[in-house]
Amino acid sequence: xxxxxxxxxxxxxxxxxxxxxxxxxxxxxxxxxxxxxxxxxxxxxxxxxxxxxxxxxxxxxxxxxxxxxxxxxxxxxxxxxxxxxxxxxxxxxxxxxxxxxxxxxxxxxxxxxxxxxxxxxxxxxxxxxxxxxxxxxxxxxxxxxxxxxxxxxxxxxxxxxxxxxxxxxxxxxxxxxxxxxxxxxxxxxxxxxxxxxxxxxxxxxxxxxxxxxxxxxxxxxxxxxxxxxxxxxxxxxxxxxxxxxxx
Length: 247
Hints:
This protein is mostly helical. It has eleven helices and no strands. It has a single domain, classed as MetI-like (MetI-like fold). It is globular. It starts with a helix and ends with a helix.
């Protein structure tokens, strides 16, 4: 029964994908300008051609490192700030202001401000970190604050303190909130990083090739790079979720 249900689910997903590919193909034929709206076949052909080039994988690797680095920094600082906030109400009030402001500021504003203060190659990493930090900080803090009082009392009875208390009590008890924050940041990190690459324009990046394709009206390249970004983003999210499920 479960196998049949799984097969039906896969079949529905394939049918939905084919439907939207057909809509894309029809729209491309109706528009009649491949440099603006290339067909799925042309896009896939160009993507396979790009995959045979070292430049493509180099750009993918560098962008992936920026995404992973920005998300890792957001997690580390999120843990540190959440720990301080749950220990002190003063720190909680102080940190609530930047967290709320950063969450409300448009990504483009952050990118443009960052461009005034740092090198273009560092902007995507910084923007990714800044966009993910409020999400991670808020979720981790909620997780720490939701730790049952019984766990805290147990730690006092057995004198579990310092790093042991943090790793044995706080993190396991708040893991659900941490996983939720990482799941939300998985997609956000890619969107913010690539947007920052497009504006800051470091030569070794996927965003640089997106902008180049747009400037030279290479629609197939633009769509191929976009599809590549989507595939990498989905794979990154799947791998992250799998790793979290094993934790």
